[in-house]
Structures are given as C-alpha cells and as structure tokens.
Prior knowledge:
Layout: E1 8-12, H1 17-28, E2 32-37, H2 40-49, E3 57-61, H3 67-75, E4 86-89, H4 105-133, E5 137-141, H5 154-173, E6 180-186, H6 193-197, H7 202-208, H8 217-227, E7 238-241
Parallel strand pairs: 1-2, 1-4, 2-3, 4-5, 5-6, 6-7
The structure holds NADPH dihydro-nicotinamide-adenine-dinucleotide phosphate and 2-hydroxyethylsulfonic acid (8X3).
Amino acid sequence: MTSLENQIVLITGASSGIGSACAKIFAGAGAKLILVARRLERLQEIVDTLHETSSQFYLLQLDVRDRAAVASAISHLPPSWSNIDILINNAGLSRGLDKLHEGDFEDWEEMIDTNIKGLLYLTRYVVPGMVNRGRGHVVNLGSIAGHQTYPGGNVYCATKAAVKALSEGLKQDLLGTPVRVTSVDPGMVETEFSTVRFHGDTERAKKVYQGVTPLTPDDVADVVLFCTTRSPHVNINEVILMPVDQASATLVNRRTSN
Length: 258
Ligand code: NDP
Ligand code: 8X3
C-alpha cells in the first residue's frame, strides 16, 4: 500500500456526502486536504470534526462551474499547497426526474455545467502540474447512471456517461506519463443527493431509500482510498459498486415493513 502521508489531495464537493466522507478518510490517512465547495461554513464544520487528526486543511469556496474562478483558485494556491497529488472530482448533482421532452432547461444546464464542465475545468487546471512533476492521480465520481439509463434519468445519465468517456479519454491521453486515472461508479448512496434532485423535497427523497440498505458515503470513500493507495504501477480504471439490495439502476430489493 502506498502511503498518503503529506500527499496533497484536492476534493471537490467536500461539504457533503461522498466528498465529506473522502475528506474524513484521507485526513485519517495523513493527507493534506484542499476542500472545495460553495458552502464554506459546511467545509469549516467538517474540518472542526477532524481536529483530532494531524492533517492540515486548505478551504476553497468555489463554484466549479465558474471557469475563471477555478483558474484563479488553482493558480493562487500557496506554494506549500500547489503540488496536488490526488484530484477527486466529486462535485456533482442531479436535478429533477422529468421526462426528457418535459424537462426543465435550468435543471439540464446545472447538471451539465457541474458534472461535465466543472470536472473538465478542475482537470484542465490541475493535471498539467501532475504531468510536469511526474506524479498524480485523478479520481472521477461517475455513477451506474453512466452505464445504464433509467426513466427520467436522461440528462443526469448523459452527464455520467460523459464522465465515463472523459475518464477513459484522460487515461489514454496520459499514457506515457505516471499519472493515474480512476472512475468510481456507485449505485445508490444515501446522501443529500436525492434532496437536491427533488429541489429540497425531503419526504420524496426519503422514499428513494425506503426499505433498502443503501451504500453509505463511507463505503464509497473506502473504495476511493483503496484505488489511490495501490503500488504506483497499478491503475484501477473503473470500479462499479452497489448495495447488495440493488442489481441495476431500476432493480432494487425493497423490504416492506408492516
Ligand atoms: P451530495 O449532494 O451529498 O454532495 C454533493 C457535493 O457537490 C456537495 O458537497 C456540493 O457542495 C457539491 N457541489 C454541487 N455543485 C457544486 C458546484 N457548482 N461547485 C462546487 N461544489 C458543488 O451528493 P453525493 O455525495 O451523493 O454526490 C457526490 C458525487 O457522487 C456526485 O458527483 C454524484 O453524482 C455522485 N454519485 C452519487 C450517488 C448517490 O446515490 N448519492 C451515486 C453515484 C454517484 P456545495 O453545495 O456546498 O457547493
Ligand atoms: C446516482 C445513482 O441511480 O440515482 O448517480 O442515478 S442513480
């Protein structure tokens, strides 16, 4: 296992769910963490819960959709934080579950701008440094939605299919360098994901996980940690993980309680 001690790890979407679980597990492994999200106060709360680790933290309030802001944030990192070893492109969201022909344009643009363009911006501004330094690893959070579509998933599934293509393309383009690329593609994980999808309707969000034991954010972070701690010559290209209660995007085992 490769040590993460003092490695600089940038995590987007670290204020919630899978991103905050990654922050926790990488802090426990001794990494130095750059935590990115729009909600700075949430990042600060997460850091406060990690005060017992010996990790150092650098918080970036950033909207990954804003290319100029991403460029400025990465180019203005203090020298002791600028040599990023691991980039975890996790920030992402779904909005709505409408039929495509009835879909909401704002929902579409938010998903495309965050899940595809935000991931591209971070990758474009961070990876050249990895290539120059001769070390680095990019982990993209894809989804089973990038492998299979489901009714109402249309644009979200398309963004995750794009993430799959971008992970594969980046791996090909980095051939000949030691920089690694991994796509971690989960099924159902209980986070704020469904509340965001349903624009704050928590009752509807709860129903998504009813009668099911979903993955936890820690389950996913554990896989991200595994992928980033293999020997330097090993590249884990893609991991698909689901709860035991799930067999595909639409096949879910729900227990009914009386
Ligand atoms: P959460 O809603 O819990 O977390 C999403 C994170 O993304 C938040 O920290 C949010 O921070 C951040 N984010 C969203 N938009 C932006 C933006 N424009 N700029 C910066 N940060 C942003 O969801 P999850 O933890 O579940 O989702 C994390 C990733 O995992 C996503 O890419 C999602 O598609 C993927 N995924 C989730 C699955 C699930 O079932 N939950 C399954 C498969 C994949 P803030 O709002 O503070 O900016
Ligand atoms: C999140 C999982 O199945 O809701 O990417 O699209 S799913």
